[in-house]
Write a structure and sequence with these properties.
By secondary structure, the chain is of the alpha/beta class. Helix content is 48%, strand content 14%. Strand 7, helix 10 and strand 8 form a beta-alpha-beta unit. Helix 9 crosses helix 17 and helix 17 packs across helix 18. It starts with a helix and ends with a helix. The structure holds NADPH dihydro-nicotinamide-adenine-dinucleotide phosphate.
């Protein structure tokens, strides 16, 4: 039995059999680090794989809160503190009804390597709750955030575990979580990033993941003597990552023509109206169907009308495609449609948005594939800038943060490409990213002893 089979067997026997997202992420990493394992037996000798696939701590807690009708509500809360070989745990918090231990374990596992790839000294974690923020009043959101932090605050700390935003957790929620921590501990400790500027947040954090995604793509293309200028791009999602990716695409001279939400998708062949999109999603927190009501030339397709469960946005011909909504949102049907329409590059804004079957199709057809752990690392990189600003009380301007973000994304690309060259991987950026991240974590684990 080789190390992949052995590790998968071990993971399946020690986790819930239904942890399919975690197993999917784990298998991808195990397969792609094969060249490293073959050249450096020390990683097998130190049993790094057996050690790295176990989370250090899995915390599960109950969140009780009162809704506006004074009825008691109960939700599940989780934090997976997966690995802290490189530094304190760091990873976002997600509020969405689909949240469960499997989703968070996969996100935390991916976060370990993403954080390592940035070259910064942070470990990997992820947390969240099955709480659904949709349809809740401002007061209910605040009450829930306070109850979440009350149930869990003694497990975080600026040297222990630093939280951040993710799906359903933006500046508003981060502000309430931070406020409750402050009350409970009587400190102004930097235990969460993506804070509003008024609470010590960093300039440019809200836009960092979306902007970073486009900086990474632009660097990659420049190395191929290509550019995004004048190119049609398709995007899924219409949240924090998607909207800022669209904004940066416009700045690069590209033409982003799609977006989507959990209910449907928009195609606007003249280019997405960014101001209207922001108004609908950030101000009104409404469905995208209102976009088509106000932009008569745009088409709106409801989720129920998608072909074979494949988001309508991937049927639109484009040069570059950016899935920016959620995990496993781009399946083989979507990949084939993109390939038939001559897509040149796929860059992941969301975490693990592409199914393994879809990735295989892109690879077989030589489509450049930029994996999430590299392409969407801009958010966590600026979060670390936020932590360092909070600790030093020395704040950067928006321009300084943007310049640092550009450099970080460009360096991430260069480090991955150097790894690809070292292991003769061509443009296999998935393997390059996994080897780079794994090696940094594994070396730190070996250096610390057991
Ligand atoms: P938001 O909550 O701001 O937006 C998520 C978007 O995806 C919304 O448009 C939402 O639709 C849509 N969506 C969510 N779940 C589903 C689903 N099951 N099916 C279809 N559409 C869905 O989240 P972010 O933009 O912050 O995050 C998007 C992705 O990027 C996630 O994978 C996240 O883990 C990843 N990411 C985010 C970072 C950040 O800095 N925010 C950092 C790194 C990665 P609706 O509006 O209807 O809810």
């Amino acid at each position: 039995m080789d190390y992949i089979e052995q590790a998968m067997k071990l993971a399946i026997s020690t986790n819930c059999q239904d942890d399919r997202n975690f197993f999917q992420a784990l298998k991808e990493v195990l397969i792609s680090i094969k060249p490293l394992m073959e050249q450096h037996p020390k990683y097998l000798n130190h049993r790094i794989i057996q050690r790295i696939i176990y989370p250090n701590r899995e915390i599960r807690f109950k969140i009780e809160w009162l809704n506006d009708n004074n009825q008691t509500q109960v939700n599940n809360g989780y934090r997976i503190q997966f690995n802290n070989a490189l530094g304190p745990y760091k990873g976002g918090v997600r509020f969405h009804p689909s949240v469960n231990p499997d989703i968070l374990k996969f996100l935390a596992f991916e976060q370990i390597f993403k954080n390592a790839i940035t070259g910064l000294h942070i470990g990997g974690a992820k947390g969240g709750s099955d709480f659904d923020p949709k349809g809740k009043s401002e007061k209910e959101i605040m009450k829930f955030c306070q109850a979440f932090m009350t149930a869990f605050y003694n497990s975080v700390g600026s040297d222990i575990d630093i939280l951040g935003g993710d799906i359903g957790v933006g500046e508003r929620e981060v502000g309430y979580l931070f406020g409750q921590y402050k009350i409970l501990t009587n400190t102004y400790d930097s235990i969460i990033t993506s804070k509003p500027i008024s609470l010590g947040g960093s300039q440019g954090r809200a836009s960092a993941t979306g902007y970073g995604l486009i900086y990474f793509t632009q660097t990659l293309l420049e190395n191929q003597d290509e550019t995004l200028k004048g190119k049609i791009c398709t995007i899924s999602g219409s949240g924090n990552v998607a909207i800022h990716a669209i904004e940066k695409l416009y700045e690069m001279g590209a033409v982003p023509v799609t977006c989507s939400d959990s209910r449907g998708a928009i195609h606007d062949s003249n280019g997405i109206d960014l101001e209207l999109l922001k108004k609908i999603k950030f101000e009104r927190r409404a469905s995208l169907e209102y976009y088509a009501v106000e932009r008569k030339n745009a088409s709106y397709v409801k989720k129920e009308q998608y072909n074979n469960n494949s988001n309508y946005v991937w049927e639109i011909p484009c040069f570059a495609a950016f899935p920016c909504a959620t995990q496993n949102e781009l399946n083989a049907v979507a990949a084939q449609a993109l390939i038939n329409n001559d897509v040149q590059i796929l860059a992941e804004g969301a975490n693990m948005p592409t199914t393994p079957e879809a990735i295989d199709l892109f690879v077989q057809n030589n489509i450049i594939f930029a994996p999430a752990k590299a392409a969407n690392a801009g958010g966590v990189a600026v979060s670390v800038l936020e932590m360092s600003q909070n600790n030093s009380l020395n704040y950067f301007s928006a321009e300084e943060v943007d310049q640092k973000l550009r450099n970080i994304m460009s360096n991430i690309y260069k480090d991955i490409k150097t790894t690809c060259d070292e292991y003769d991987l061509g443009m296999d950026l998935i393997s390059g990213a996994n080897i780079l991240g794994f090696k940094r974590v594994a070396d730190a684990m070996i250096a610390q002893g057991v």
